[in-house]
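In response to the reviewer comment on reproducibility (Comment 2.3), we provide here a single inverse folding case reported in full, input and output, so that an independent group could reproduce the run without further information from us. The structure tokens appear first.
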């Protein structure tokens, strides 16, 4: 089974299916009431220690299909952990901090008077507020293609927040996903921005699953 260290691999690992998980649970020779012993036995399979998952008797279901990405970690944290670091690298910390600091304060959004490069304990709301500004702030400072890739990620996150996934919304999701796929690698390499292995999962993990 692939772990987080493998997220940057340039190929898709086999999914963690319901059958695989249930087979692993059935192969554990330990009483679930022995909490410590059962938990340790599950750790060998990277299982959480739940003896009977709530979906175990659901026919024709698989967790890797119905557990879809959620906003806080897959959109806001992804943005701050990856997109912001790319922008800081290509624009420069001092320049991007200055651009954030001179923005007109708005009641509904956080004002980053000291910039964003030195922030600590950043909340999901602050990360969301940065997303409203980032494309406009880098558009004339980042190399061509970086702004397109970042804008594509922002569009993708925006469309995903809709309450209903109708067919025309799904089609719209494909456009920013493909724009990102087509521009990200070339633009980042030409700008000499190093993309850590974990960051490369954006092009082989979350976004291709929606396209």
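Designed residues, in position order:
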């Amino acid at each position: 089974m692939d772990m987080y260290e493998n997220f940057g691999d340039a190929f898709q690992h086999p999914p963690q299916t319901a059958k695989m998980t249930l087979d692993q649970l059935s192969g554990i020779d330990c009483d679930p009431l022995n909490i410590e012993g059962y938990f340790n036995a599950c750790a060998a399979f990277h299982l959480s220690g739940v003896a009977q998952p709530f979906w175990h008797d659901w026919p024709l279901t698989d967790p890797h299909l119905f557990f879809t990405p959620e906003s806080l970690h897959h959109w806001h944290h992804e943005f701050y952990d990856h997109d912001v670091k790319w922008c800081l690298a290509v624009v420069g910390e001092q320049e991007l901090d200055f651009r954030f600091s001179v923005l007109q304060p708005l009641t509904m959004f956080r004002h980053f008077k000291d910039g964003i490069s030195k922030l600590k304990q950043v909340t999901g709301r602050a990360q969301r507020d940065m997303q409203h500004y980032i494309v406009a702030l880098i558009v004339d400072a980042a190399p061509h293609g970086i702004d397109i890739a970042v804008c594509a990620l922002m569009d993708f996150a925006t469309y995903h927040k809709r309450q209903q996934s109708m067919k025309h919304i799904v089609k719209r999701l494909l456009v920013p996903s493909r724009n990102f796929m087509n521009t990200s690698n070339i633009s980042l390499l030409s700008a000499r921005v190093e993309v850590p292995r974990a960051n490369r999962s954006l092009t082989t993990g979350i976004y291709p699953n929606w396209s």
